[in-house]
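Summary for the funding panel

The consortium committed to producing paired sequence-structure records for every protein in the target list. Below we show the first two records in order, beginning with the earlier of the two.
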Amino acid sequence: MRKSFYGSLALNNVKKNAKGYVPYMLTCIISIMIFYIMAAIVYNPDVTKMFGGTTLRSLLQFGMWVVGIFSAIFLFYTNSFLIKQRKKELALYNILGMAKRHIGKVMLLETLFVSAVSLIIGLIAGMVFGKLFFLLLLRILVVELPMGYQISTDGALLTTVLFGAIFLVVLLCNLGRISLANPIQLMAGSRQGEKEPKTKWLLVLLGLGMTGAGYYMAITVVSPIQALGVFFAATILVIGGTYLLFTAGSIALLKMLKKKKSFYYKTEHFTAVSGMLYRMKRNAAGLASICILSTMVLVTISTTVSMQVGISDILDRQVPYDIQARSQKPLTDNKAAELENQFETILSRYGAEHGKVVSYPCVAAYGEEQGNRVIPIDTFSVDKELVQIYLVPMEGSRLEKDYGSLAEDEIIIGGEREVDSETFGIGSMEFRVKDGASDFKTAAELGTIAIPYYILVKDQQVVDEIRNTAKEAFSEETYFTGVDLDIQSNSKTRAIADTLSEETGRSIYIENRETSAMELHSVYGGLLFVGIFLGLLFTIATVLMIYYKQITEGYEDSENYHIMQKVGMSLAEVKRSIRSQILIVFFLPLIAAIFHVAAAFNMMSRLLIAIQITNVWLFVGATAATILAFAVIYIAVYSLTAREYYKLVK
């Protein structure tokens, strides 16, 4: 045979199977584009010139390889749909006299064509849209440093090598399937698995047990440390339980519906339930995969959006003042006064308009809440919610001028915790709560995993009495100084902070809000950027899996519905049956995914607390908005695929 014959045949095969190949190639193109854009940013030398650039590059590099690994898995998965649809066609070639090596040559040319077109268009799209996504990244990061977008030859080479290797392995797998199968097996391939599956109650109970255990672990988590410990186990249990419930549980449910005569013996239900029952073992794995992917989309987007939006809350907690200083050891009165004078002197040197310089000693301890009481603890249990208390004596400090004096049995509570009671206990001591300082702010310890109480007490003697009730629980006394500036120049703020750092010495840790904000934006903004790409990729994967599933079932159901029409089923009844089947199958993964997200909400909110995102309502809003947006996309996909399914059946 002439070489041109194989080329023409390969090209015609791609055209003839456009319903399968076009979505597959689009997925390849988008995966290549996403991977290249992330690789181009990773290899951009300007990234490391910004604050937190090294961390950002590491995050993007991690996300890039996650995209690469997921793309490989998903392209293998979608390729199996294509081969399944073409089994009869390939068997026919063999029966008509084409040797398997000739079929292999045709498949080689098809793969070369698909991979070349996908790589070329994907790289061009990456280079064209890379600028847009690069500007999006800068917008998310709120970067002042000018960073130029560059077309990356290293990124293009890495993308070509990776996806070339993926296409090569896909081709080898396809050739292996063809060489090991005989024509009769290929001809019967699309009709295999038609025996009615048995109900496996043991697997149903195991699936319920695994899912229930995963839900219980997620719902009963009370602390960030506990959430970190159970996250992986709960995720594995829910994933395993989901697959078991979709495979064994769905069959058990369909058989129960079949036994319910009032439901089953209706035209639309009879054909839908019977059709799904015979193929559920094969379909269930796909439905479970759609459910897991949908859950991944919802969790990834909602958490990364919450992290980005919650940056201001983190800053308010850790860097409440424009410039602040922490001493990691107690200061004498002379040293404390000297530190305040240094602040005043350097601020005057720069001509910086500023508010009052706030200065005070502070001790901190982790604690457990018991009603309107906090018990300081030196060792804590992972299954109890933690708070952190900061004790600040007012006497002799500027705080006393702001909030007035206190009696020995009085305290003022600031921070995020609201206390409705007129009394509040700390350890074994009882205090009356005085109003008037909800705006009081101090800096939470870096890396704390607890929600803080800021407590003003009368004087150092009261602090010492509280500390004596739990000496091992409290940290060493630190000294805090903070000031808000009335200037608009970020560079001037950083210059003042740098000068303070040089002149106060190593024992004083100087922070400024602008630098901290840029560092947080580089980390959380990078995570959001990666989350957007992963969410996009997971959404595309979900859509394509749904599309291929509907197309595959459309081909398989076409003959069945034609037979039903021949024995008296009207076209309207066919439509109702199709609608019933699609609605049951299509929306089951989405509903299950929403249940998964709802069950995981408590655990995810605790994990966010570990990175200082304590605003639960922010996470509620982000999750609700993500579910709504994804449901809109899901319904749109339903409309399109249902139409294609009906065309094939008709």
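The next record, for a separate protein in the list, is shown here:
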Amino acid sequence: MNLLLRRLAIAAHRPIIVIGVGIGGLVSALLLASAGESVLVVEKERGPGGKVRQLNVGGASIDAGPTVFTMLPVIEEIFAAAGARLGDYLNLHKSERIARHAWSQSDQLDLYADFEQSCDAIGDFAGAKAVTGFRRFSREARRLHKALDRPFLRGSKTDPLTLGWRMGWRGFPDWLTLRAYRSLWSALGTYFPDPRLRQLFGRYTTYCGSSPFETPATLMLIADVEAQGVWAIDGGMSALANALETLARQKGVVFHYGEPVARILAANKKVTGILLQSGEQLAADTILFNGDPAALGAGLLGADVAPATRAMPEKARSLSAMVWLAHAKTGGFELGHHNVFFGPDYETEFRAIKAGRLPPQPTAYLCALDRTVPGHRPTGRERLQVIVNAPANGDHHDYTSEERETCTATMLERLSSCGLELEKPLPHILVTPNDFATLFPATGGALYGRASHGWAASFLRPGSRTAIHGLYCAGGGTHPGAGVPMAALSGKLASEAVLSDLGSTRRFLPKAIAGGMSTRSAMTAHSG
């Protein structure tokens, strides 16, 4: 079809509606528009990003969502697909130090982007045998990552047999040894007799909201993802969301903020449009939902589309969190950009969370947002985000002021035991599973969709397509999983599914469809 005919075909179709502009929704909107589609975004909040957001504490804007940025090539490829260069929109710095880890004032270990430097640090920390185990672990994590990157992480939702087919005969040995039937915690014991190192590398499963005691050993690949590089973004992760939005606008995407969607409308298992809370209806043949798929299955977007995905049981939810956003003076422990302060007993921590309780002596992750440049020490107060894992029960358990105060005290004790002192009283706000449950309906505050517990969990995440024709999903709760690069990949996969399905139905020049709903023009809708 020549360019004129394609433009006429697009004009005759209703705009594709994207509900929500987290990273997955932004990527989908951008790539669909770059392919020539008309795209209208509807978002209940006042700006882009979804979980990638900032909150104000004492006049300082502090990242309240993801802080670890990996898999840079994924984002570079998305910008390139839109005809742009990432470096023209963002300033990034590769971190020389991946993270600082502490168990006490005397037990501290840094991991580095340079592998041999990490080996030296581990040798100094735990001896030569630990280095041998680390080298073996790193080789296995790299093998699993390479084996699954193309056929699983970058491919559409699949099942175990189809995954084996995608991996091909050369990948058959890897398919037979994906280590899906042994827990990560158990496997780590074969590499790291030192319990501190076992705890360190077990923590990577929290990146997908899961327990190392219940996830398959396959997930050791996450350690290799981080070993491939961690970057800091000037302006924080919100700068990435803003850059994607800017580029999407340049491609013609229309953004309509402050408009919650009450229902997704469908007839005969095919979408027909959306109903806004304002009462206005917008017609659509194609809708992409960038929210947690659990909201669809729970019927929160209407009975018409409840069959789109399965409802997720509470026991399948990933972790939630207690998150402190602080603007405070620090002393003692020399912070890096990413810092982990380990509790004394990991098994007790996760047992408490599984039972619906806050851990009594929790591990705390701290992102020092102003320490992105090595050796830079902020003067005065600095911006901090501190995270402690929590159960995803925010839809039925009310976190009392006493629980909040106790958890804050135990978090501060953990930091202090490792030598870090924070300003007292601490200028901060605390975000709890109750807040996350409100922000992300039907999740109970789960921040990563479905937990990766059990060998089959990774295959149970919803894919781009749903059981409702014309309704697609993207985001951290959708295949391939949680985290900024994974959410971006879900957006890419969703856009490919939409374009493939539209291509199969546009065999002839379509005719305009008259009447039915009050439909705004994508060219005149409020752009936020």
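Regarding this second record: The CA atoms of residues 287 and 347 lie 43 Å apart. The first helix runs from residue 3 to 11.
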